[in-house]
């Protein structure tokens, strides 16, 4: 297996004049981009950074963040990207945990960098046109002349360390080798049927596994990565039309915002022929809406994680709503009984259990960064216990029903919130929905549905809809709460714990177009 640096050099040799990167007015061919990357590799050397050092980034998607990523692959540095919204305490944790040697940031993250206790001990590079005393200019480094960079590490070296979201505890570092990253990129190309010269919208952040995979996949096929620093539906629609975007790979929340944007009906999205989503389940209602709006040639549900990029793939998601399909080309998965003592305690067809994936797959990680406690919980007998619940149907397709921690136990019955959300999403007045279990003295938990509505609808109407849809009585929500927003993480993952904790704002007034 090639290391990623050599892989990128091979891409430049194949398609030197192909358009590689777009970021506003910045447009680089592969040859031009390599010049910038090579200059940055030379700068890393002058700064004393060595293969195996961790370089942290707090950057939005742009030419600088993408250039730093590839420069690290050639220089042998372990790029350790963190959310640009990071606060000072989180930044200090990541610096200390990773033993970081350098940090690249931009103005949007400046307050946290300034408030950080540990950042001052690192080599600091700032993206943009200005710097502060003691900092180096990333842009100036990239504009220098330097010999063409050569790869200096093997496919066995560490490539990247992503941090998990840490919604319930401190985030965990997920180190991944060059060979695993490249295998994941190749699988992404194959499973999404990408062809040479594809153009993707680079909006999933490069601190997230989906963003990194899009970047690598485009380089493998001489494709174009069109940067969008932060998601804005109107701007995304403009870029789709002006740059001829051919594929989208987004979380369901971003698709929702895109297709419900006021400008969508007036926008030209005809260039988009392939849709892919990951990061969360997609409701039946949104699947239908997207299939009708884009009429794509391919609509892929990709189920995976930071730890093991691909678990399963369904290449025709609308045909079997809710199905995550079958194992990817580099993977073997199964479901085991909840709280199983062994990976051999396999759940029956149709029985809900915990999803586990083989650690021997080409895309797999090998364990968390200095977290033996996390390894002990998640890695057993050569398998990765995902913490996700699901079942396999009679046809062998996997259905992901939620998280083990999200399972609602009401009156002794296990209820998946995803099933209820998919049902309610089909009601025309429901714009977004999240279902959780709230404490109850008698039942243990009662099912509550939080609804963002597009027009006025009553609790009685929604309950009747659930009943007529065939939802079992014990699965029907016992209360409905109308809210203005559903809490989500920066990459669009539903934050049920905030709803359970009461951290939400009830709807201030019915929708303006209520009937």
TrEMBL record:
InterPro entries: AMP-bd_C, AMP-bd_C_sf, AMP-binding_CS, AMP-dep_synth/lig_dom, ANL_N_sf. Signal peptide: none annotated. Residues 419-493 form the AMP-binding enzyme C-terminal domain. The keyword Ligase applies. Keywords: Ligase. Coiled coil: none annotated. The keyword Translocase does not apply. This is AMP-binding protein. It comes from Bradyrhizobium jicamae. The lineage of its organism: Bacteria, Pseudomonadati, Pseudomonadota, Alphaproteobacteria, Hyphomicrobiales.
């Amino acid at each position: 297996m090639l290391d990623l640096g050599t892989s990128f050099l091979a891409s430049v040799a194949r398609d030197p004049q192909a358009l590689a990167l777009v970021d506003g007015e910045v447009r680089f061919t592969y040859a031009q981009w390599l010049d910038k990357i090579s200059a940055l590799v030379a700068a890393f050397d002058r700064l004393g950074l060595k293969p195996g050092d961790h370089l942290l980034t707090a950057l939005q998607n742009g030419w600088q963040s993408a250039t730093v990523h590839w420069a690290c692959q050639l220089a042998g540095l372990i790029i350790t990207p963190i959310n640009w919204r990071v606060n000072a305490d989180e930044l200090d944790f990541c610096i200390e945990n990773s033993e970081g040697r350098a940090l690249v940031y931009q103005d949007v993250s400046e307050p946290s960098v300034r408030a950080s206790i540990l950042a001052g001990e690192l080599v600091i590079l700032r993206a943009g046109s200005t710097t502060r005393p003691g900092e180096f200019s990333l842009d100036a480094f990239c504009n220098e002349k330097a010999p063409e960079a050569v790869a200096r590490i093997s496919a066995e070296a560490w490539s990247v360390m992503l941090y998990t979201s840490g919604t319930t505890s401190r985030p965990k570092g997920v180190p991944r080798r060059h060979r695993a990253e490249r295998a994941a990129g190749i699988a992404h190309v194959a499973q999404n049927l990408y062809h040479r010269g594809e153009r993707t919208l680079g909006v999933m952040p490069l601190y997230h596994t989906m963003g990194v995979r899009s970047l690598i996949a485009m380089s493998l096929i001489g494709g174009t990565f069109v940067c969008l620093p932060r998601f804005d539906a109107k701007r995304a629609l403009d870029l789709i039309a002006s740059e001829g975007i051919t594929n989208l790979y987004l979380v369901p929340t971003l698709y929702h915002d895109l297709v419900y944007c006021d400008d969508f009906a007036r926008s030209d999205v005809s260039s988009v022929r392939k849709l892919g989503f990951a990061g969360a389940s997609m409701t039946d209602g949104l699947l239908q809406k997207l299939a009708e709006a884009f009429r794509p040639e391919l609509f892929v549900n990709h189920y995976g994680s930071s730890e093991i990029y691909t678990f399963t793939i369904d290449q025709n998601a609308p045909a079997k709503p809710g199905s995550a399909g079958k194992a990817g080309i580099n993977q073997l998965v199964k479901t085991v009984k909840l709280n199983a003592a062994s990976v051999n305690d396999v759940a029956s067809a149709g029985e809900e259990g915990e999803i586990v994936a083989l650690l021997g797959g080409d895309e797999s990680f090998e364990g968390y960064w200095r977290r033996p406690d996390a390894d002990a919980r998640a890695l057993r007998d050569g398998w990765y216990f995902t913490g996700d619940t699901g079942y396999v149907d009679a046809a062998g397709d996997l259905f992901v029903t939620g998280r083990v921690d999200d399972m609602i136990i009401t009156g002794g019955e296990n209820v998946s919130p995803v099933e209820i959300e998919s049902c309610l999403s089909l009601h025309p007045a429901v714009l977004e929905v999240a279902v959780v279990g709230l404490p109850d003295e008698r039942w243990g938990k009662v099912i509550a549905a939080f609804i963002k509505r597009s027009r006025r609808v009553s609790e009685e109407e929604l309950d009747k809809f659930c009943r007529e849809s065939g939802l079992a009585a014990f699965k029907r929500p016992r209360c409905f709460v109308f809210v203005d927003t559903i809490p989500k993480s920066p990459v669009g993952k539903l934050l049920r714990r905030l709803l359970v904790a009461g951290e939400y704002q009830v709807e201030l007034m019915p929708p303006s177009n209520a009937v």
